Amino acid sequence: MSPIGEFRSFFKTDPGLTHLNNAGLSPINIEAEAVVHYWVERYRREGMFCDAAYLEAVDNARKQLARFLDAEPGSIAFFQSTANAVSQIAFHLNLKPRQEVIMWDQEYGSHLYPWQEACKRAGADLTLVESDPMMATPIEKLLAKVSDRTRVIAISWIQFQSGAISDLKALAAFAESRGIWTVVDAFQGIGVLPFSFRGLGIDAVVGGSHKWMTSPVGVGYLCIKQERARQLIPHNVGAYTFGTCEDPTDLSCTPKQDALRFEAGSKQVLEIIALGASADLIQRCKVETIQKTALDLAQKLSDGLRALDYQITASNGERQMTPIVNFSPSEKSPLKTVDAIIESLVKNKTSYARRGPGVRVAPHAHNDIKDVENFLSLLKGR
Ligand SMILES: Cc1ncc(COP(=O)(O)O)c(C=O)c1O
Fold this sequence. Notes:
Elements: H1 3-8, H2 30-46, H3 51-69, E1 76-79, H4 82-90, E2 100-104, H5 109-122, E3 125-129, H6 139-143, E4 150-156, H7 168-176, E5 181-185, H8 197-200, E6 204-208, E7 220-224, H9 226-230, H10 239-242, H11 269-285, H12 287-307, E8 311-312, E9 325-328, H13 338-347, E10 353-355, E11 358-361, H14 369-378
Parallel strand pairs: 2-3, 2-4, 4-5, 5-6
Antiparallel strand pairs: 1-7, 6-7, 8-9, 9-11, 10-11
Helix pairs in contact: 2-11, 3-11, 4-5, 12-14
């Protein structure tokens, strides 16, 4: 079997559905499904007798995710959502009045709003840098706004509406020597594009389970340099901030020194173990192979849309750098309104998202060329 054939063999979706909203919610892979079934059954049959084993499985999931992100297991904290992971940083790095946080003007709410609120509470300024035409996000433009008041640069690696990509290496190189915090929401890239936390040198990355990682909804995570983790006081505090549920309570205990200090109590075990299994699967199938296939499909999709006279929000030029395609009708396109496009997609059970200037579709490597062809045939308006 070809490497991509192997990856596809882990997806078993209902016939008649076309999954093109992988930037929203991807179908999950069958290894993730299997570990959830396995642990549900063990909980039913064994109760307390599987206590140590499930904790070990969570530990293993942390190692699997760490391997996948190229980070230390102790750099990773699990949360329930990306918003929670961002909030841990935004509300606890002790922002001061007049300090500044810089972001793009097209960030997703779970990344934007915690920073907006943290700035409001601290009397700090939130600066939103205007994207280029076509919603492009060239990092030089953002870095040109940095001043001696800039405390944090918080941006998405890949923007959720447009698929615009920012150069994280250039960001880290600029910010590290100036002591500016770099916080990156990488939810729209991790799982489909290669990523190395160690290699990049950014301070912190947040992401989650249910898009390109093809895992169940319910996990947000923070991956943070250990020296930066120690600069943040934990937002949530409980037994696991200090030790485990086995430890006697002790009012003089001190928090853990690594990112595990941010996990206060019991966790969403099933979803975390599934995320670990998904990270392992994607690593085994090679993210570079997945990337190539997803980008090829996205390219065929955007070329096909152009040939039908739809307008592409080509943030990164005409060559797809990410699998996200945002398109709109034009005077010459067969379907003339966004509503007409959506009506056709809904009728034909093709998932999509209405985002920013138009409609967003985002093929993953579990899609195949037939999905793209079916989609394009719907856009012909016949
Ligand atoms: C860039 C980005 N970050 C985060 C999220 C999800 O945030 P949360 O886990 O808080 O729902 C999304 C999508 O829903 C997203 O596109």
